Amino acid sequence: MQLTHYNTKFKPFTFPITLVCDNVSNGPNIGSLFRIADAFGVQTLILCGQNISMGRKMTKTSRATEKKVNYKMEPYTLPVVERLKKEGALIITLEITSTSRPLHAFEFSNDNPIALIVGDETLGVSEPIIKGSDVNIHIDMFGSNSSMNVVQATNIALYEITKQLRGF
Fold first, then answer.
1. Does the predicted TM-score (pTM) go above 0.90?
2. Three-state secondary structure call for residue 71
3. How many CB atoms lie within 10 A of CB 59?
4. What is the CATH number of the domain that holds 72?
């Protein structure tokens, strides 16, 4: 018998992960990020930018998870990242760079809270955020494309992070 969200018995758990979105502005992407944050037990979702769409398309995609996920909206990303760093978070940017490390090869630990930074649908994470990060990670890809949608990339990253934090 196929189970639904009404009869599954997943045990709720919150990981010390803050998901910071650097100028992600597409409503359906934001809605999907709420669903991912809920599914992976993200502690806080922070939407940074001045053109964030919280309209009908976002709420339709989020399936009411925006009512369950702890979230904040901030106009600028850099002050948020600097504050999280001062609070002891490990700042991890999900962006392919000349110094980024493969996601699967990075060892995540429970020693510090994690701030995972994901970026704009077209431009990615801004350069000042990349430079201020403790580490840049990327997802190894095997086709001709060098990027994927922010939602799919965040799914993959949060799966690997939470898998490691759980000790699997």
1. yes
2. strand
3. 17
4. 3.40.1280.10
